[in-house]
Design a protein that fits this description.
three-stranded antiparallel sheet; 21% helix; 10% strand; elongated
Length: 136
């Protein structure tokens, strides 16, 4: 939630088009510095001066139907304040540095149609009890 003066100041900084985009997707107006963009087109911003503590970093997703699992692990660490430098400046967080790392980020598919569902191929050892009511 932002105040009227803060909203007007941010409209002047970012413009009407970005103001309407931010209100549609994040519900607040934020003006900050573009830090970088990842391989999927998500844009990462930071504003240390005007925002509340622990609310200074945010992401503008490329996809309209977004999910937090669309953030790469290095950017997630930066967004969560686990590290101070973004992955573009930190060699440890840069994607593609490790041999075991997947070439493309795989999103979390929980609660979607593509989620993993367990099933058994073994015949059950017990049967469910079905009560039988005696006639009165």
């Amino acid at each position: 939630m932002s105040t009227i003066l803060r909203t007007l100041r941010n409209i002047r900084r970012i413009g009407i088009k970005d103001y309407l985009h931010q209100m549609q997707y994040i519900g607040d107006t934020k003006a900050g510095t573009l830090i970088a963009s990842d391989r999927y087109g998500n844009k990462y911003y930071e504003n240390v001066d005007d925002e509340l503590p622990l609310r200074t970093r945010w992401v503008d997703y490329k996809e309209k139907e977004y999910s937090p699992c669309q953030i790469e692990p290095g950017w997630h660490a930066w967004m969560s304040y686990l590290v101070d430098k973004p992955p573009t400046e930190d060699a440890v967080l840069r994607p593609g540095q490790r041999s075991w790392e997947l070439p493309l980020h795989r999103p979390n598919l929980t609660a979607s149609r593509a989620a993993f569902k367990t099933y058994s191929t073994v015949k059950p050892k017990t049967a469910a009890w079905e009560p039988v009511a005696a006639p009165r």
